[in-house]
Recover the amino acids of this structure.
C-alpha cells in the first residue's frame, strides 16, 4: 500500500472573498506573513475585504503568472462555500489552477467545481482530508532531530511558535523544516497531515510519517495540537507526542488564561504540569526528551510588565521564556541539544 | 445533528463458513459464550467447521425462527469475504435477516449483497463504522458509575474481563451494562462504538456517548482498548480513558509477557506503572478514579504455581488479583466504591 502525502503547487493566489475581519481571514494572513515569497497575489471580491498588501490579481492574470494554487484564506462560521464565490473558483479551476480549502463543505462535493477542475486538469484539495493508508506507528527510532510545540491549551500560539523557531533556526544556520499538523499550517508549509482528522488507530503513525528519517543534524519543528490536559482533544495531543519522538519541546502558554477555553469547568494546567507530563509520556518513544523553553503570548499583559512577567517565569522554571512574536526565539534555540 | 448508535437486531444466527480453527472463529465463539440466550443457531458451510454447540440452521429455518441478524463470526487474514459465501449471505439478506460483519471489506461494497438487502429490507451492518456526527468531548460529569478495563498491552483480556465483571456483578444484584468499544465486543453486546475507528478529534466524545447518563447506582463496565504505554495505540487508550470518566478501573495483564506484542523493542510496562499513569491521566475528568483490582491471564503459568503467582501480585499491589476465567471477579467486585 502506498501512502501519498499532500503537496500543494506553488506559487499561491490568496482568495479572501469579501472578508474584512482579520480573525476570519487569519489563514490568508498567516500564509502572507510566513511565506511571502510564495504569494504572488490576492483575489478580493470587494474593496472592503482585508488587504494583505499583495498585488490584486484576477483569475486570468493569475493563470498567466503561473499560479499553482488558489487558496481560500478565510474561515467562515459554519464552514461552507457561498454560492457567489463559485464563478471565481470555477474559472480558476478551469484555468488549471488548483483550488485549496479547509472548510467543512468538501470542494469535491460541489458539482460545478468538479466539472471545472476536470476541464482545467486542476485539483480540488481539501486540507482536512488525511492521506489514505496511514500506518500504525512502529515506534522505531528515526534519524534526525525533532522539536514539538506543546501547550497548556488550544489556540495560544503553538503554530506561530513553531514557524518563528523555523525562521530563527534557519537564520542561525540550522537545516530545519516546519512540519504542519493542522489545516492552516498545511497551507503555509504547502504540505503536512491534518492530525486531528486521522482515524484513532493511526494518529501516532501519521505523526511518524509527518517527520520522516532525515540527516542526523536536521531539525523538524513540529506544529503541536491541543493539550495533553484538554478534556476534548487530549488523545490527539498524546498521539502526536508519541509519534513525533521529540528530542525537545517548547511549552506554549497564553498569559492570563485561567481555564481551558470553551471548557470553563476545567482549570488550565500549570506550565510545570505540562512540562512534567509531556516528559513522562514522550519518554516512551524518546527517553531523551526535554523542555528547551517556554513561549508565551503576552497580548493580555501591559507593556511595562511584560519583561518582568517573562523573567519571573524563566526563573521559576529555569528555562528561557519569550514571546516569540516580540522577542524571537534565539534564547530557546541556544538550548537545543 | 443527530447521532445514532448502532443497535443489532436479535436473535442471532452465527455464520462460521468452513472455519475449523478456534482462533479464527473467536468472534463467533465469544458471542455463543457470553450471550447464549441470543443465539438460536449456527450456519456452517462444512461439517469440519467449528461446532459452537448451537443448532445447525440453514437460512430458511433461521428466517422462520425470526432471526434478526446473521453474524459473520470468523476473522480472516486479509479480512475479505470469500466469493462462495455470497450465495448464503445473499439469501439471508433477501429473507429479511440483517448481515453483520467487521471485516476489512465493507459489506455494502458488494453489489449482489446490496441488491439482496434492498429486496429483503434488511441491513448490511459493518461494526467497524462508527456513528456519524460524534461530538467533541464536553468533559461534563455524567450520572451513574463507570468501570474501565485497562491493560499493560493489547490482546490480553480486557474485553473478557469486562464481560466477566458484568456477569458477576449482575449475579451479585448490581444494575450493570457491558459497554463495547471494539468490533467483537459490539457483536456480543449488540451495541457499542468501535473507538479505534473514530476520527481523532472525537475519540473522547465517542467514549462519552458510549456510557451516557444513567441511574446513580448503575454501573457501566467499559471494554478498554490498547494500552497507554503502547507505541502504536496509546492515543486511543488515552482518549477512551478521559472520555469514560472512570470511577474505577481494573488493570489487565498476561502472565509471562515481557514485551509489547509485535513491538519487540518495547518492554512491557509494569502493572504498577500502568496503575499510576492511569490514575494521573484519568484524574483530569474524574479525580476519584482508582484501581480496584488486577486481572491476569494465567494461561502461561503451570497449574500448581498459579495461586502463588496471583497471591504475590496481590500482596505487592494491595489489590485483589484474579484470573477472571478461572476465579471469577467477586474479589474485585467487593472493592467497588
Amino acid at each position: 500500500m502506498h501512502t501519498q502525502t499532500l503537496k500543494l503547487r506553488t506559487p499561491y493566489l490568496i482568495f479572501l472573498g469579501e472578508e474584512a475581519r482579520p480573525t476570519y481571514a487569519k489563514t490568508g494572513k498567516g500564509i502572507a506573513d510566513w511565506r511571502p515569497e510564495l504569494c504572488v497575489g490576492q483575489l478580493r471580491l470587494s474593496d472592503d475585504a482585508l488587504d494583505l498588501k499583495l498585488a490584486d490579481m484576477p483569475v486570468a492574470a493569475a493563470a498567466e503568472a503561473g499560479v499553482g494554487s488558489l487558496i481560500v484564506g478565510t474561515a467562515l462560521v459554519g464552514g461552507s462555500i457561498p454560492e457567489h464565490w463559485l464563478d471565481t473558483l470555477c474559472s480558476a479551476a478551469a484555468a488549471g489552477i488548483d483550488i485549496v480549502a479547509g472548510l467543512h463543505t468538501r470542494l469535491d462535493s460541489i458539482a460545478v467545481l468538479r466539472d471545472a477542475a476536470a476541464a482545467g486538469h486542476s485539483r480540488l484539495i481539501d486540507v482536512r482530508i488525511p492521506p489514505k493508508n496511514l500506518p500504525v506507528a512502529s515506534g522505531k527510532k528515526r534519524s534526525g532531530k525533532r522539536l514539538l510545540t506543546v501547550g497548556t491549551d488550544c489556540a495560544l500560539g503553538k503554530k506561530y511558535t513553531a514557524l518563528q523557531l523555523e525562521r530563527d533556526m534557519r537564520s542561525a544556520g540550522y537545516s530545519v523544516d516546519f512540519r504542519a499538523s493542522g489545516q492552516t499550517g498545511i497551507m503555509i508549509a504547502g504540505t503536512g497531515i491534518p492530525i486531528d482528522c486521522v482515524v484513532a488507530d493511526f494518529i501516532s503513525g501519521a505523526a511518524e510519517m509527518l517527520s520522516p528519517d532525515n540527516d542526523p543534524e536536521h531539525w523538524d519543528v513540529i506544529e503541536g495540537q491541543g493539550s495533553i490536559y484538554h478534556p476534548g482533544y487530549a488523545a490527539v495531543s498524546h498521539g502526536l507526542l508519541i509519534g513525533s519522538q521529540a528530542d525537545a519541546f517548547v511549552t506554549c502558554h497564553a498569559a492570563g488564561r485561567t481555564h481551558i477555553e470553551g471548557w470553563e469547568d476545567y482549570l488550565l494546567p500549570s506550565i510545570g504540569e505540562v512540562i512534567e507530563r509531556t516528559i513522562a509520556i514522550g519518554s516512551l518513544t524518546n527517553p531523551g526528551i526535554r523542555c528547551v523553553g517556554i513561549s508565551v503570548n503576552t497580548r493580555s499583559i501591559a507593556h511595562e510588565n511584560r519583561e518582568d512577567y517573562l523573567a519571573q517565569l524563566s526563573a521559576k522554571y529555569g528555562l528561557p521564556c519569550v514571546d516569540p512574536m516580540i522577542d524571537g526565539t534565539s534564547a530557546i534555540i541556544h538550548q537545543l541539544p
